[in-house]
Amino acid sequence: MNQESIGIIAGSGQFPMLVARAARLEGHRVVMCGFQGHTDSALEHEADVWSMLHLGQLGRLIDFFVSAGVTRLCFAGAISKPRALDLRPDMRAAKVLFRLRSKGDDVLLRAVLAELESEGLVIVQAAELVPGLRGPEGVLTRRQPSAEEWQDIRYGWPVAMQIGALDIGQCLVVRRGMVVAVEGLEGTDATLRRGGELGGDGCVALKFVKPGQDERIDLPALGLATVRTLAQGGYTCLCYQAGNTLFFDREESISLADKHGISIVGIGPALSAELTAAAE
Q1: At what angle do helices 105-118 and 91-99 cross, to 10 degrees?
Q2: CATH code at 171?
Q3: Residue limits of the LpxI C-terminal domain (predicted)?
């Protein structure tokens, strides 16, 4: 039986490594491409075939995966959005950008997906290879959200869905029925730091998937660094969209949250729909 070649477009963090190792455990050949200034070059040791490109070299990216015989391709890891503003597109990327009316994350990524698929590459969700990373539904910590925190979650969840629908960000900070911070280009951790500075102790953080987002790419992610930032900022509660949020180093993160009295809760589809409908 021929060995299948799995392609990984790698950003920063541990996700590309975890996906590569899971693919290898399943007997696949790993073909990985990273980006200068975004991807750790040490990932080369996790791949059978490796390339490091500059962000914006779409033509070379496609040629690399096609020539390596990749059948399935996934995105894993974060790209620094402020640094992505400095990308220098090649001819193929420039044509994609020229056709777009807006440059929001989801719009741009969908256009890139279409280009990849036009060359016969099948895009899959990286989490399919490591399903254990999906954050579960329910309260994960010893402490349940308080009545006041649930009130903030009920207030913030429909606001988060509206912000996500506008393709702005995946994180919102609320306190006492007020929006404290909204994620833009700076990313989740920077948003949480700003939210803690503005709102003070007792803020609630919400992490969510943008409505209508192509979930094969750019899933929201949490981890130990997130919980550390919450603890430093005096947060008391974190809620995330269960099943569609990647939760790294979960046991260690929950232990740290318990130490600081932070409640972590995964919002499932039924509750998400209920919270959104209640605000209409």
Answers
A1: 130
A2: 3.40.140.80
A3: 136-265
CATH of the domain at 90: 3.40.50.20
- Final residue in a domain of this structure, among 93, 128, 163: 128
Q: Encode pLDDT of 226-278 as tens digits.
A: 999 999 999 999 999 999 999 999 999 999 999 999 999 999 999 999 998 87
* Beta partners for residue 148, in sequence order: none
Residues paired with 123 in a beta bridge: 73
User: In the chain, what is the straight-line distance between the N-terminal and C-terminal CA atoms, in Å?
Assistant: 54
Distance between alpha carbon 60 and the CA centroid of its chain, in Å?
Answer: 25
Other C-beta atoms lying within 10 Å of the C-beta of residue 81? 14
Q: Are 204 and 192 in contact (CB under 8 A)?
A: no
pTM of this prediction? 0.83
Q: 32 is in which domain, residue-wise?
A: 5-128
Residue 84 — φ and ψ, nearest 5°?
Answer: -65, -20
- DSSP code at position 134: B
Among candidate residues 191, 165, 169, 167, the one with its CA nearest the CA of residue 180: 191
* 108 token code pair: 């741009």
State how far the Cα of 149 lies from the Cα of 137, in Å rounded to an integer. Answer: 17
| Same domain for 151 and 26 | no
**The domain boundary residue, chosen from 74, 100, 128:** 128
Q: Is 255 helix (H, G, I), strand (E, B) or coil?
A: helix
Count, residues in the chain: 280
Domain count for the chain:
2
Task: State whether 138 and 252 are in the same domain.
Answer: yes
Tokens at 2, concatenated: 């021929």
Same domain, 73 and 163: no
